[in-house]
Prior knowledge:
Elements: H1 3-18, H2 25-38, H3 45-51, H4 63-72, H5 78-85, E1 99-100, E2 110-115, E3 119-127, E4 130-137, E5 146-148, E6 152-153, E7 158-164, E8 171-175, E9 181-187
Antiparallel strand pairs: 1-6, 2-3, 2-9, 3-4, 4-5, 5-7, 7-8
Amino acid sequence: MTKIVQIQWLLRKVEKRLGRPVKSPIDFDYLSLRIGETIPERLSTTTLKRIWGYIHTEHAPRYSTLSTLARYVGYEDWDDFLAKTTEEYDESEFVLCNELNPDSLTTGDRIELCWQPDRRCVIIYNGNYSFTVQESYGCKIVAGDTFRAQNFIVGHPLYLNELRHGAEQPKSYVAGSRNGLTTITLLK
């Protein structure tokens, strides 16, 4: 299990303990309050937004932040969480993290996708699960490429279908296969 998957597993446990998914500023405020009421520690809403991918950051979460979240769900610290949850991790899971489904998009919407190491692209929604790459940094997919995608999920690989790359025949492509997407941002 990769560190990003382990962190996502911890975030799912936090959401389960909280009793609701964490997606909006109000949810982050509520979680910060609940952590402070449950254990004698606090995490700022900004820190929580970063770890959930609501605010873009290039930095990995601190050990102390992960330990605070682990204590909130009943473990001694991050190391204890890792030691005790490896056995219970299942390859099948419900997605309760930052997700973007094309059904919620409007033609012309722009989305920024990031994954390691330092990969970034901006895509435009064409409708009917079809996208065009507008900008790309450090990626094999480049501006002008088109593809189809069913969803985008932080912590999971990006699967592209019918990728049209120059004069090549359409093919499937996976980005972020090791650690998945790190952020998904709907641009204004």
